[in-house]
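Could you help me review a protein record that somebody else here produced? This is what I was given.
***
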Amino acid sequence: MHGTGPGEIAPDGSAVEYYAAVPPDEESAALVHGAVGPGGTILELGAGAGRVTHPLLALGHPVVAVDASAGMLARISGAETVCSPIQDLDLGRAFDGVLLMSYIIEYGGERRPLLDACRRHVAPDGVVIVQRQPPAFHRDAGPREWSSGGGRFRMYDVVRHSEDVVSATIEYRLDGRRWTHSFTSRRFGDEELPAVLGESGLALDRFLDEEGGWILARPV
């Protein structure tokens, strides 16, 4: 993955200035809040610039925000921050909720090290929340344009390597600035969930949304 545009570009190709400028993701934070429960401690893996961190803090959750980009973490206030690759993380602490969002499970290479990190840090009665692309994304992926949160987006250079693997570039335009982010996404399908989660000592509990993009798992 790689990115272009003004300001710092994080190791995964994400633009720090873009994610610092977009509105908080209140909807995702509300979904997490409902799954973890009031006041539950949260470990947010791949927290970025705090789009979900800050709303979770406002909802009363103590949050430890982890990211491989110090530039992203510098934009977060009110949470403990840890600069580290997810795969290497071992804080020696357990949390009521561990979050692996922003489609990292489909963009981040090998899945087991990511899920192992989730399992290391979840309390025995806690939950792991994993966000993936809804199943329709890989089936229907193609060039398109849309608007959201005051920005304009365009997906182009879409290449379907197989039924499960798609590469593309997304262009972000906000306040007269332009960034791009090129990525490859490998589908995390329903048929894989029991075995892949099980290898890391996790079990599927349910989906948190009708589209199947939000997976809730529990330690076994």
